[in-house]
Structures are given as C-alpha cells and as structure tokens.
Description:
Keywords: Amino-acid transport, Receptor, Signal, Transport
Oligomer: single chain
InterPro entries: BCAA_transport, Leu-bd, Peripla_BP_I
CATH topology of the largest domain: Rossmann fold
Protein name: Extracellular ligand-binding receptor
Family: Belongs to the leucine-binding protein family.
Amino acid sequence: MRGIFVLAMLVGSLSAARSEDLPIFRIGVMNDQSGLYSDIAGPGSVVAARMAVEDFNPESRGFRVEVIAADHQNKPDVGAAIARKWFDVDRVDAIVDVPTSSVALAVSAVSAEKNKAFLITSAGTSDLTGTACTRNNVHWTYDTWALANSTGRAVVKQGGKSWYFITADYAFGHALERDASEAVKNNGGKILGHALAPFQSGDFSSFVLQAQGSRAQVVAFANSGGDTINSIKQAAEFGLKESGQRLVSLLAFISDVHAIGLQTAQGLMLTEAFYWDLNEGTRAWTQRFAPRNSGRYPTMNQAGTYAAVLHWMKAIDALDKTKARDGGAVVTQMKAMPTDDPLFGKGSIRADGRTIHDLYLFEVKGPGESKAPYDYYKLIDTIPGDQAFRPLAEGRCPFALN
C-alpha cells in the first residue's frame, strides 16, 4: 500500500509539474464592475469567462488560460490605460467584454496598436465593424445596426409610423439612434425629433415630457443599463402608455426588465441575441451560471462573453502556440473556423469581425403570463443571422471590402 501511495504522489507531482510548464494565455475581462452597466456585464461576465475556460479545459490540450478582470468605470481614458498596462506589463493576450461604446473604441485602437485580440461582447456601436474596424476586432452578441433594424422594422410594420427618441448622449446612443432612424425611414416611418440625455442621468422627466409633447406614436429609448431602467420607469409615471404612445427599447436586457418589473415593462418590445429559455442548451447553461452569479440569470452580454472566450480558445488550440501570441493571427483563425456553442448555436465570423448568428424579437410578458422566475419574454420573431446584421458591403470597413 505504501508503494502505491508513493507512486500516486509521484504521478500527481509530475502532473502538476507538467501543468506548470504549459504555456499560459491570459484574457482580461474589462467592464463596469459596480456602476450603471454592472448588471448587464460586470462580475457576471467574469463568471461566464471562467466557465468557458472550465468547460474547454485547455490544460488537456496543451496550454493554460488565466482570466483577470478590471473596472473601466465607463471612461475611455481609464479603459485605454488598463489595456496598455495589461498588454505591456501583465502579458495579457486578449481583452473581452467592454460595455460602453466610447470605451470600446478606445480599447480597440490600443488592441490594434499592440496586435492583440479584442473580443467585443457588450459594446454596441456598429462602427466597430464599420468605419472604425480593425483586423483585431471580433464583435459578438449584437450591434446598433442589428438592434435598430430588427426592432425598428417590426414596430413600423405593426403601425408605429412616427418616432421620437430619448437618446444617451455619447457614441453608443448616437449610433443607435442613427441606425434606428434609417430603419424607420426605410420602412415608411418618420422621425419627429429627439432629446439627448446626459449619460448616467438620474432625472429623465424633461426628456419624457418632450417625447410626450411630440405626440409620436413610438417613444424609443436609445440608451442602456440604468439609463434604460430609469427612463422607462419615468415614462410610465408620466402615463405615456396610457396616452397611446408605444414604448420601445432599442437595447434592453433581462436584468433591466427584472429591475423595472413586469407591471411597468409589459408590452415593451426589444431584440436580444440570447434568452435563457430558448432551448435545452440555454436552460442547462443558465442553471449552472445563476448560482455563481448570486442567483441572477444571464444577460446576452454575459452569454456572449462565454461564447467568445470559448471560440478564442478553439483558435489558440488550432495554432502553433508561438503564433498564438499574435493577436491578428488568432483573430484570423477565429474567422476561419465556424462558431458553434450551446448558447448561440452555429454561426460564423465575417471578414470585418462581425459574428453572424440569429437574433430574436421579444415582447415582455404581463405579470399574469409569467409562470416562473425570469419567465419574462414572448418570442415574436426569429431573425436569421444572414438578415439580422448589416450587409458587409454597407459597413465601409476598408480591409473587408478588398
């Protein structure tokens, strides 16, 4: 028995030593950890990234992956500084998540300069695969063009012809309003005006009153996170729905609906790339995720982080590990391989870095329709991936058109 014990200890020591000798790849989850966007990404995205590493088990494939995290405070200069430190000092190989489009644009520039992979799973601006594209960007989950086109087209076809926007006054909000306005006009609707609300505003009353005064059939919220929650709650307080105006969120998450409550949010239309109750795969993953996220169900951003990190590791596995230090080479490999995971299903990554997968148009249920925790959505329509996202030729990404 003693000989068996000694042999087992020796095997364990050798295994540990071999593990220590494996090349290490580091990925940094950068997002808002405690502020306005912490519920849609935040600590939950870190959980999702670590679950991807556990599920892929890179050590069995000859390399290790470490996940680190930082709070960019929704400030572009802070995000850029973190990215530089990660790449120059901490030997980080890729960055993932990064809500707040202005921060993502800053991090994208640093990632391109340092030739590192940038996996964007929470920022919305479609410019990241358009005029601001780089060969190092992979844009997962959603973008402003896709959300605006899907939601705008559907609402106009249901009779919502005149629109007024309450827009977050920064890059993301401007891009979302721009793309939604184009979709509305292309489908026969018209734009009556907009109100630009400061980012992280606590009081939307003046903007809501302007929207009410416009008498537009549709009041569209081109914002996200806490701004979405506050603006929709205040719109309900001022009775916009009772006066016959339809409320549309151009980017809302299940965490927002949870915070608003079904009584106020019922009837709200929105487009998402993921919902926990879509199929057996999404339900099984959510049952593993929620206990690790303080019981909160996953947003599409957190699901996107899981899927993007999983695909990034598949690309590393397919490359010589020395070449896998080259972020551009890793992204090229990611584009060469079809995407396939339990949350988004099968898809692909285009030349401009846009990940192609289905999107879903939902309507929020009323309180009497919900039968379980987070049972919030009715599926209205599935938009196939090849129709959901902006055509490649319209994006004006210079290298993707060559």
